Amino acid sequence: MEKLNRSIHLVSRPTGVPKPENFQLILNHIPKIKEGELLIRTIYLSVDPYMRGRMRGIKTYANPFELNEVLIGGVVGEILETKNPSFKVGEIVEGRLGWADYSVSNGSNLRKVAPRLAPISTALGVVGMPGLTAYFGLLDIGKPRQGETVVVSGAAGAVGMVVGQIAKIRGCHVVGIAGTDQKNQYLKNELGFDETINYKTENVLEALEKTCPKGVDVYFDNVGGDISDAVMNLINFQARIVLCGQIAEYNQEKLEMGPRVHRKLIHSSALMQGFIVSNYVQRQEEGLKQLGEWVNDGTIKYRETIIKGLERAPQAFIGLFSGENIGKQLVKVSYE
Ligand SMILES: NC(=O)c1ccc[n+]([C@@H]2O[C@H](COP(=O)([O-])OP(=O)(O)OC[C@H]3O[C@@H](n4cnc5c(N)ncnc54)[C@H](OP(=O)(O)O)[C@@H]3O)[C@@H](O)[C@H]2O)c1
After folding, report:
1. Which of 84, 98, 100, 296 is most buried when burial is the number of CB atoms within 10 A of its CB?
2. How many whole angstroms from 32 Cα to the centroid of ligand 1?
Protein backbone atom coordinates (compact mmCIF):
# COMPACT_ATOMS: atom_id res chain seq x y z
CA MET A 1 0.00 0.00 0.00
CA GLU A 2 1.30 3.51 -0.83
CA LYS A 3 2.62 5.43 2.16
CA LEU A 4 0.95 8.84 2.46
CA ASN A 5 2.06 12.19 3.86
CA ARG A 6 -0.06 13.45 6.77
CA SER A 7 -0.02 17.19 7.40
CA ILE A 8 -1.82 19.56 9.77
CA HIS A 9 -3.63 22.52 8.21
CA LEU A 10 -5.11 25.60 9.83
CA VAL A 11 -8.74 25.51 8.68
CA SER A 12 -10.21 28.41 10.69
CA ARG A 13 -8.77 31.34 12.63
CA PRO A 14 -9.02 30.83 16.41
CA THR A 15 -11.09 33.15 18.58
CA GLY A 16 -9.67 33.18 22.09
CA VAL A 17 -7.81 30.01 23.05
CA PRO A 18 -7.29 27.85 19.92
CA LYS A 19 -9.50 24.75 19.68
CA PRO A 20 -8.93 21.36 18.01
CA GLU A 21 -11.48 22.23 15.29
CA ASN A 22 -9.24 25.09 14.08
CA PHE A 23 -6.91 22.35 12.76
CA GLN A 24 -7.34 19.44 10.37
CA LEU A 25 -5.21 16.45 9.45
CA ILE A 26 -4.94 16.08 5.66
CA LEU A 27 -3.60 13.12 3.64
CA ASN A 28 -1.58 13.61 0.47
CA HIS A 29 1.01 11.79 -1.63
CA ILE A 30 4.61 12.06 -0.46
CA PRO A 31 6.03 14.93 -2.54
CA LYS A 32 8.57 14.27 -5.30
CA ILE A 33 11.76 16.32 -5.31
CA LYS A 34 13.24 18.29 -8.21
CA GLU A 35 16.87 19.17 -8.98
CA GLY A 36 18.37 21.12 -6.03
CA GLU A 37 15.79 19.84 -3.53
CA LEU A 38 15.68 17.43 -0.57
CA LEU A 39 13.00 15.24 0.98
CA ILE A 40 12.99 15.40 4.77
CA ARG A 41 11.31 13.00 7.18
CA THR A 42 10.11 14.87 10.27
CA ILE A 43 11.40 13.43 13.55
CA TYR A 44 10.45 16.24 15.96
CA LEU A 45 8.36 19.31 15.48
CA SER A 46 8.19 22.29 17.74
CA VAL A 47 5.05 24.06 18.91
CA ASP A 48 5.72 27.69 19.83
CA PRO A 49 3.59 30.46 21.36
CA TYR A 50 4.46 32.94 18.56
CA MET A 51 2.50 30.73 16.14
CA ARG A 52 -0.70 31.99 17.77
CA GLY A 53 0.05 35.48 16.41
CA ARG A 54 0.48 34.11 12.89
CA MET A 55 -2.96 32.46 13.13
CA ARG A 56 -4.67 35.86 13.43
CA GLY A 57 -4.45 36.69 9.76
CA ILE A 58 -2.68 40.00 10.40
CA LYS A 59 0.87 40.76 9.30
CA THR A 60 3.24 41.52 12.17
CA TYR A 61 6.95 40.80 11.93
CA ALA A 62 5.97 37.59 10.12
CA ASN A 63 3.34 36.86 7.51
CA PRO A 64 0.11 35.25 8.77
CA PHE A 65 -0.57 31.56 8.16
CA GLU A 66 -2.90 31.03 5.21
CA LEU A 67 -6.09 29.08 5.83
CA ASN A 68 -6.22 25.52 4.43
CA GLU A 69 -2.46 25.35 4.13
CA VAL A 70 0.04 23.34 6.12
CA LEU A 71 1.29 25.04 9.29
CA ILE A 72 4.97 25.92 9.28
CA GLY A 73 7.14 25.60 12.37
CA GLY A 74 10.46 24.37 13.70
CA VAL A 75 11.29 20.82 12.58
CA VAL A 76 14.18 18.45 13.13
CA GLY A 77 14.28 15.73 10.50
CA GLU A 78 16.37 13.32 8.49
CA ILE A 79 17.21 13.65 4.81
CA LEU A 80 15.61 10.75 2.96
CA GLU A 81 16.37 11.79 -0.63
CA THR A 82 18.57 14.52 -2.04
CA LYS A 83 19.16 16.18 -5.39
CA ASN A 84 21.19 18.92 -3.70
CA PRO A 85 24.96 18.28 -3.50
CA SER A 86 25.28 20.19 -0.20
CA PHE A 87 23.28 17.55 1.70
CA LYS A 88 23.61 13.77 2.09
CA VAL A 89 21.00 11.12 2.76
CA GLY A 90 20.85 10.40 6.50
CA GLU A 91 21.96 13.86 7.63
CA ILE A 92 19.91 15.50 10.38
CA VAL A 93 18.71 19.04 9.73
CA GLU A 94 16.71 21.73 11.52
CA GLY A 95 14.59 24.37 9.86
CA ARG A 96 11.19 25.96 9.34
CA LEU A 97 9.19 23.22 7.66
CA GLY A 98 5.64 21.92 7.54
CA TRP A 99 3.74 20.20 10.32
CA ALA A 100 3.86 17.04 8.23
CA ASP A 101 5.48 13.61 8.03
CA TYR A 102 7.55 14.71 5.01
CA SER A 103 8.68 18.08 3.64
CA VAL A 104 10.57 19.32 0.62
CA SER A 105 13.22 22.03 0.87
CA ASN A 106 15.88 23.54 -1.36
CA GLY A 107 18.21 23.61 1.65
CA SER A 108 18.34 27.39 2.08
CA ASN A 109 16.20 27.29 5.25
CA LEU A 110 18.09 24.41 6.89
CA ARG A 111 21.00 24.02 9.26
CA LYS A 112 22.77 20.74 9.83
CA VAL A 113 22.55 19.24 13.32
CA ALA A 114 25.42 17.11 14.66
CA PRO A 115 23.82 14.23 16.63
CA ARG A 116 27.07 13.50 18.47
CA LEU A 117 27.12 16.96 20.13
CA ALA A 118 23.70 16.84 21.82
CA PRO A 119 20.38 14.98 21.43
CA ILE A 120 18.87 16.20 18.16
CA SER A 121 15.69 17.41 19.89
CA THR A 122 17.73 20.17 21.57
CA ALA A 123 18.11 21.85 18.16
CA LEU A 124 14.51 23.03 18.67
CA GLY A 125 15.00 24.02 22.31
CA VAL A 126 18.00 24.79 24.47
CA VAL A 127 20.46 24.70 21.53
CA GLY A 128 17.95 26.20 19.11
CA MET A 129 15.61 29.14 18.71
CA PRO A 130 14.38 29.34 22.35
CA GLY A 131 17.93 29.02 23.74
CA LEU A 132 19.14 31.77 21.40
CA THR A 133 16.22 33.95 22.47
CA ALA A 134 17.28 33.61 26.10
CA TYR A 135 20.96 34.11 25.32
CA PHE A 136 20.70 37.26 23.20
CA GLY A 137 17.75 38.79 25.03
CA LEU A 138 19.34 38.45 28.43
CA LEU A 139 22.97 39.17 27.60
CA ASP A 140 22.53 41.80 24.90
CA ILE A 141 19.58 43.75 26.31
CA GLY A 142 19.33 42.68 29.97
CA LYS A 143 23.12 42.93 30.50
CA PRO A 144 23.01 41.30 33.95
CA ARG A 145 25.88 42.11 36.32
CA GLN A 146 27.20 40.15 39.30
CA GLY A 147 24.99 40.58 42.36
CA GLU A 148 22.03 42.08 40.48
CA THR A 149 18.48 40.75 40.79
CA VAL A 150 17.02 39.16 37.66
CA VAL A 151 13.32 38.27 37.50
CA VAL A 152 12.04 36.05 34.70
CA SER A 153 8.39 35.25 33.98
CA GLY A 154 7.39 32.11 32.07
CA ALA A 155 10.36 30.76 33.98
CA ALA A 156 9.70 27.04 33.55
CA GLY A 157 9.29 27.24 29.77
CA ALA A 158 11.77 26.76 26.96
CA VAL A 159 13.11 30.33 27.03
CA GLY A 160 12.64 31.09 30.75
CA MET A 161 14.63 28.11 32.03
CA VAL A 162 17.65 29.13 29.99
CA VAL A 163 17.35 32.80 31.00
CA GLY A 164 17.45 31.89 34.70
CA GLN A 165 20.44 29.62 34.31
CA ILE A 166 22.46 32.15 32.30
CA ALA A 167 21.66 34.78 34.93
CA LYS A 168 23.04 32.37 37.57
CA ILE A 169 26.22 31.93 35.48
CA ARG A 170 26.51 35.74 35.62
CA GLY A 171 26.31 35.65 39.44
CA CYS A 172 22.84 37.16 39.81
CA HIS A 173 20.07 36.66 42.35
CA VAL A 174 17.45 34.91 40.18
CA VAL A 175 13.71 34.85 40.79
CA GLY A 176 11.49 32.78 38.51
CA ILE A 177 7.72 33.13 38.12
CA ALA A 178 5.77 30.07 36.91
CA GLY A 179 2.33 28.50 37.23
CA THR A 180 2.78 25.36 39.35
CA ASP A 181 4.65 24.33 42.52
CA GLN A 182 6.08 21.34 40.68
CA LYS A 183 7.64 23.62 38.05
CA ASN A 184 8.97 25.93 40.73
CA GLN A 185 10.52 23.08 42.72
CA TYR A 186 12.34 21.99 39.57
CA LEU A 187 13.64 25.54 38.99
CA LYS A 188 14.96 25.80 42.55
CA ASN A 189 16.15 22.28 43.23
CA GLU A 190 17.53 21.31 39.84
CA LEU A 191 18.35 24.55 38.04
CA GLY A 192 19.60 26.65 40.95
CA PHE A 193 17.08 29.51 40.83
CA ASP A 194 17.29 31.38 44.16
CA GLU A 195 13.58 32.03 44.57
CA THR A 196 10.36 31.23 42.76
CA ILE A 197 6.81 32.54 42.74
CA ASN A 198 3.67 30.61 41.80
CA TYR A 199 1.59 33.32 40.11
CA LYS A 200 -1.55 31.20 40.30
CA THR A 201 -1.54 30.75 44.08
CA GLU A 202 0.48 33.72 45.43
CA ASN A 203 0.01 37.49 45.45
CA VAL A 204 2.75 38.28 42.93
CA LEU A 205 3.54 41.78 44.20
CA GLU A 206 3.88 40.64 47.83
CA ALA A 207 5.94 37.64 46.78
CA LEU A 208 8.23 39.89 44.70
CA GLU A 209 8.73 42.23 47.66
CA LYS A 210 9.86 39.25 49.73
CA THR A 211 12.05 37.58 47.12
CA CYS A 212 13.61 40.75 45.66
CA PRO A 213 14.64 42.71 48.77
CA LYS A 214 17.01 44.88 46.70
CA GLY A 215 14.48 45.53 43.92
CA VAL A 216 14.67 44.31 40.31
CA ASP A 217 17.58 45.17 38.02
CA VAL A 218 16.62 43.01 35.05
CA TYR A 219 13.15 41.81 34.18
CA PHE A 220 12.96 39.25 31.35
CA ASP A 221 9.31 39.41 30.34
CA ASN A 222 7.87 36.32 28.65
CA VAL A 223 4.24 36.83 29.63
CA GLY A 224 3.07 40.45 30.06
CA GLY A 225 -0.30 41.09 31.74
CA ASP A 226 -0.75 41.36 35.51
CA ILE A 227 2.54 39.63 36.31
CA SER A 228 4.54 42.25 34.44
CA ASP A 229 2.48 45.07 35.94
CA ALA A 230 3.49 43.77 39.38
CA VAL A 231 7.20 43.52 38.50
CA MET A 232 7.24 47.11 37.22
CA ASN A 233 6.53 48.35 40.76
CA LEU A 234 9.93 47.12 41.91
CA ILE A 235 12.28 48.18 39.14
CA ASN A 236 15.53 49.80 40.25
CA PHE A 237 17.46 52.80 38.97
CA GLN A 238 18.68 51.96 35.44
CA ALA A 239 16.83 48.64 35.34
CA ARG A 240 16.58 46.80 32.02
CA ILE A 241 13.25 45.32 30.97
CA VAL A 242 13.59 42.78 28.18
CA LEU A 243 10.33 42.39 26.27
CA CYS A 244 10.48 38.88 24.86
CA GLY A 245 6.86 37.66 24.82
CA GLN A 246 3.37 38.52 26.05
CA ILE A 247 1.68 35.13 26.14
CA ALA A 248 -0.95 36.35 28.61
CA GLU A 249 -2.33 38.49 25.77
CA TYR A 250 -2.03 36.17 22.77
CA ASN A 251 -5.59 34.84 23.03
CA GLN A 252 -7.27 38.16 23.83
CA GLU A 253 -9.53 39.51 21.14
CA LYS A 254 -9.32 43.02 22.61
CA LEU A 255 -6.16 44.24 24.30
CA GLU A 256 -6.53 45.15 27.96
CA MET A 257 -5.61 48.63 29.14
CA GLY A 258 -2.76 48.21 31.58
CA PRO A 259 -1.11 50.71 33.91
CA ARG A 260 0.89 53.36 32.04
CA VAL A 261 4.55 52.65 32.84
CA HIS A 262 6.22 55.61 31.12
CA ARG A 263 6.62 57.73 34.26
CA LYS A 264 8.05 54.75 36.13
CA LEU A 265 10.62 54.33 33.35
CA ILE A 266 11.58 58.01 33.55
CA HIS A 267 11.87 58.04 37.34
CA SER A 268 14.09 54.95 37.32
CA SER A 269 16.01 55.89 34.16
CA ALA A 270 15.11 52.38 33.04
CA LEU A 271 15.36 50.79 29.62
CA MET A 272 12.49 48.75 28.16
CA GLN A 273 13.33 47.06 24.88
CA GLY A 274 11.57 44.50 22.74
CA PHE A 275 13.35 42.17 20.37
CA ILE A 276 12.87 39.29 17.98
CA VAL A 277 15.45 36.52 18.03
CA SER A 278 15.88 36.76 14.26
CA ASN A 279 17.47 40.20 14.82
CA TYR A 280 20.50 38.17 15.90
CA VAL A 281 20.73 35.88 12.87
CA GLN A 282 24.25 37.15 12.10
CA ARG A 283 25.41 36.04 15.57
CA GLN A 284 23.56 32.72 15.60
CA GLU A 285 26.77 30.64 15.42
CA GLU A 286 28.18 32.38 18.50
CA GLY A 287 25.00 31.68 20.49
CA LEU A 288 24.69 28.06 19.41
CA LYS A 289 28.35 27.38 20.19
CA GLN A 290 28.11 28.81 23.69
CA LEU A 291 24.78 27.12 24.47
CA GLY A 292 26.11 23.80 23.12
CA GLU A 293 29.18 24.06 25.38
CA TRP A 294 27.09 24.88 28.44
CA VAL A 295 24.74 21.94 27.75
CA ASN A 296 27.63 19.55 27.11
CA ASP A 297 29.53 20.40 30.28
CA GLY A 298 26.33 20.36 32.37
CA THR A 299 26.38 24.08 33.21
CA ILE A 300 22.94 24.41 31.64
CA LYS A 301 20.34 21.72 32.21
CA TYR A 302 17.16 21.38 30.22
CA ARG A 303 13.80 19.65 30.20
CA GLU A 304 11.50 18.71 27.34
CA THR A 305 7.84 17.70 27.28
CA ILE A 306 7.29 15.36 24.36
CA ILE A 307 3.89 14.37 22.95
CA LYS A 308 3.89 11.44 20.54
CA GLY A 309 2.13 11.59 17.17
CA LEU A 310 1.76 14.27 14.48
CA GLU A 311 -2.03 14.13 14.95
CA ARG A 312 -1.53 15.45 18.49
CA ALA A 313 0.42 18.57 17.45
CA PRO A 314 -2.65 20.84 17.83
CA GLN A 315 -3.20 19.49 21.35
CA ALA A 316 0.46 20.17 22.20
CA PHE A 317 0.16 23.71 20.83
CA ILE A 318 -3.08 24.46 22.72
CA GLY A 319 -1.48 23.12 25.92
CA LEU A 320 1.10 25.94 25.87
CA PHE A 321 -1.65 28.35 26.93
CA SER A 322 -2.57 26.35 30.03
CA GLY A 323 1.01 25.55 31.01
CA GLU A 324 0.90 21.81 30.18
CA ASN A 325 4.60 21.89 29.34
CA ILE A 326 7.69 22.06 31.47
CA GLY A 327 10.65 23.13 29.37
CA LYS A 328 10.43 22.85 25.61
CA GLN A 329 7.20 21.38 24.21
CA LEU A 330 7.90 19.04 21.29
CA VAL A 331 5.95 16.57 19.19
CA LYS A 332 7.65 13.32 18.23
CA VAL A 333 6.53 12.48 14.72
CA SER A 334 8.75 9.56 13.73
CA TYR A 335 11.68 7.63 15.10
CA GLU A 336 15.37 8.04 14.32
N1 LIG B 1 10.97 37.63 21.01
C2 LIG B 1 11.28 36.46 20.45
O3 LIG B 1 12.02 36.37 19.47
C4 LIG B 1 10.73 35.20 21.06
C5 LIG B 1 11.24 33.95 20.72
C6 LIG B 1 10.73 32.82 21.36
C7 LIG B 1 9.71 32.96 22.29
N8 LIG B 1 9.23 34.20 22.57
C9 LIG B 1 8.18 34.38 23.56
O10 LIG B 1 8.71 33.97 24.80
C11 LIG B 1 7.68 33.45 25.62
C12 LIG B 1 8.05 32.04 26.08
O13 LIG B 1 8.14 31.19 24.94
P14 LIG B 1 8.52 29.66 25.12
O15 LIG B 1 8.73 29.10 23.78
O16 LIG B 1 9.59 29.55 26.14
O17 LIG B 1 7.16 29.04 25.69
P18 LIG B 1 7.01 28.22 27.01
O19 LIG B 1 7.34 29.14 28.14
O20 LIG B 1 7.79 26.96 26.88
O21 LIG B 1 5.47 27.82 27.06
C22 LIG B 1 4.52 28.75 27.38
C23 LIG B 1 4.34 28.88 28.92
O24 LIG B 1 3.73 30.11 29.18
C25 LIG B 1 3.02 30.05 30.41
N26 LIG B 1 1.74 30.75 30.25
C27 LIG B 1 0.72 30.42 29.41
N28 LIG B 1 -0.28 31.30 29.54
C29 LIG B 1 0.11 32.19 30.49
C30 LIG B 1 -0.49 33.34 31.08
N31 LIG B 1 -1.72 33.77 30.71
N32 LIG B 1 0.20 34.01 32.03
C33 LIG B 1 1.42 33.60 32.40
N34 LIG B 1 2.05 32.53 31.89
C35 LIG B 1 1.40 31.84 30.94
C36 LIG B 1 2.80 28.56 30.71
O37 LIG B 1 3.55 28.22 31.89
P38 LIG B 1 2.94 28.44 33.39
O39 LIG B 1 2.66 27.09 33.92
O40 LIG B 1 4.06 29.14 34.07
O41 LIG B 1 1.70 29.27 33.23
C42 LIG B 1 3.39 27.85 29.51
O43 LIG B 1 4.04 26.66 29.85
C44 LIG B 1 6.41 33.49 24.77
O45 LIG B 1 5.69 34.67 25.09
C46 LIG B 1 6.93 33.55 23.36
O47 LIG B 1 6.01 34.16 22.47
C48 LIG B 1 9.71 35.31 21.98
Report:
1. 100
2. 37
